[in-house]
């Protein structure tokens, strides 16, 4: 995946330099196995990269996290604090892209079942 392809998928990151996006794509490629994701590999890279960029600068793409409470009158919104959720994947819950990445991973990664 190139920076241009990434920006076509996520135009909200168009203000980022190609070099910065490319660096985050490379970071994502380092932790995501192509063999594991198969045809969904590019999507996994895209969502993971968007998550990393949002974690670096939440103001660009709204890294607000998962809504746990919302009130319409006089608008109140409360987001989950991923640091309090625990678990290795809790930081992915801090962005909409991280949540999408987890869903994609869940659909593609086969976990071993315990032997009885």
Beta-strand content estimate:
5-15%
Quaternary structure of the protein: single chain
Helix fraction, binned, reads: 40-55%
Pick out the low-confidence regions: none
Mean pLDDT equals 81
> How many H/I helices?
6
Number of strand segments: 2
Distance between the ends:
42 Å
Rg value: 16 Å
> What's the overall geometry?
globular
Can you characterise this structure?
The protein is 50% helix and 8% strand. The protein is mainly alpha-helical and 116 residues long. The protein has a two-stranded antiparallel sheet. The protein has a domain at 3-62 and 95-108. A hairpin with a 4-residue loop joins strand 1 (67-71) and strand 2. The protein contains six helices and two strands.
Descriptive labels:
6 helices; 8% strand; 50% helix; two-stranded antiparallel ribbon
Q: What would a concise description of this structure say?
A:
This protein has helices at 3-9, 18-31, 34-37, 41-56, 58-61, 96-108; strands spanning 67-71, 76-79. It is mainly alpha-helical. It has a domain at 3-62 and 95-108.
Topology of this protein?
Elements: H1 3-9, H2 18-31, H3 34-37, H4 41-56, H5 58-61, E1 67-71, E2 76-79, H6 96-108
Antiparallel strand pairs: 1-2
Helix pairs in contact: 2-4, 4-6
């Amino acid at each position: 995946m190139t920076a241009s392809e990434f920006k076509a998928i996520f135009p909200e990151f168009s203000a980022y330099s190609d070099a910065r996006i490319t660096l985050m794509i490379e970071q994502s490629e380092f932790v995501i196995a192509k063999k594991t994701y198969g045809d969904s590999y590019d999507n996994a890279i895209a969502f993971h990269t968007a998550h990393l960029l949002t974690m670096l600068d939440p103001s660009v793409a709204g890294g607000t996290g998962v809504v746990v409470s919302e009130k319409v009158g006089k608008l109140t919104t409360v987001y989950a604090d991923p640091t309090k959720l625990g678990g290795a994947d809790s930081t992915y819950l801090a962005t909409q892209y991280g949540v999408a990445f987890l869903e994609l991973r869940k659909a593609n990664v086969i976990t071993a079942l315990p032997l009885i």
